[in-house]
Structure formats: C-alpha cells, structure tokens
Amino acid sequence: MSGTVGLAEQLVSELVDSGATAVALTGSYARGDPTTNSDLDLMIVGEGQSNLTVRVGVLVAQSWASEDEYRGRFLDPLRSGRPFRAGDRRSCFTIPRDAPGF
Fold first, then answer.
1. Which phi and psi (to 5°) does residue 68 adopt?
2. Residue 102 domain-assigned?
3. Where in the sequence is the domain holding 63, given as residue range(s)?
4. Which of 2, 12, 83, 100 could form a disulfide with 61 if both were Cys (CB 3.0 to 4.6 A apart)?
5. For the segment 6-63, what is each residue's pLDDT rounded down to a tens digit?
6. Which phi and psi (to 5°) does residue 82 adopt?
7. Rounded to whole angstroms, how far apart are CA atoms 12 and 43?
8. Bridge partner list, 55
C-alpha cells in the first residue's frame, strides 16, 4: 500500500501542476481498507477530462468537475448519484453517476 500512497502523492503534485485546485482521495484507500485489486479513486476540482489510467500497475480513476458541480452533487446526491449504506462503520456515501468506472 505504501507504494500506492507514494503514487497518490505524485499524482496530486502532477494534478495541481495541471490546474487542479483540490484533489480528494475516495474509495477503499480513503476508507483504509484497500485490497490488492483496489483502484486509486481521485475526485479532482478543476477543468480536466475524467479518465481511467494505469500507473505502475495501479488503476487510477480520475473524476474531474468544477467546484460548483461537486457542491451540487453533495447538496443534492439523488440528482447526480446513488446513495448507499456501506456497512456499520461508515455512513451514507454518494457515487456520482458520471464517475469513471460507474
């Protein structure tokens, strides 16, 4: 996992250099329960193209949107995603419908 954390730190630096104003780690790495098959899920604030790439053997899902778009998604999760209950130790999350891989 430490190699993936290093990859995430490298990606954040690259994304900021590309114009991102914020980057959020989501998914299994953010929850602290990644497996060997987990991808690296990044929500990126700024103007860019959402995509799936493979970096050093790790699938990286980048979901780009403006600050206003993300704000709207969190204020009205039913508009842009599907809420779900994810176990006892977590509360309700939203997966944006247009996120890569969904």
1. -65, -40
2. no
3. 2-96
4. 100
5. 898 999 999 999 999 999 998 898 888 899 899 999 999 999 999 999 999 999 999 9
6. -120, 120
7. 11
8. 58
Rounded to whole angstroms, the Cα distance separating 24 from 63 reads 10
53-56 long-range contacts, CB within 8 A, separation 24+: 55/7, 55/11, 56/3, 56/7
Q: Establish if 28 belongs to a structural domain.
A: yes
Alpha carbon 92 to chain centroid, angstroms: 16
Compute the residue count for the chain: 102
CB 42 within 8 A of CB 26: yes
Question: Which amino acid belongs to residue 40?
Answer: L
Domain count, the chain: 1
DSSP 3-state of 80: helix
> Does 101 fall in a domain?
no
> The pTM is what?
0.72
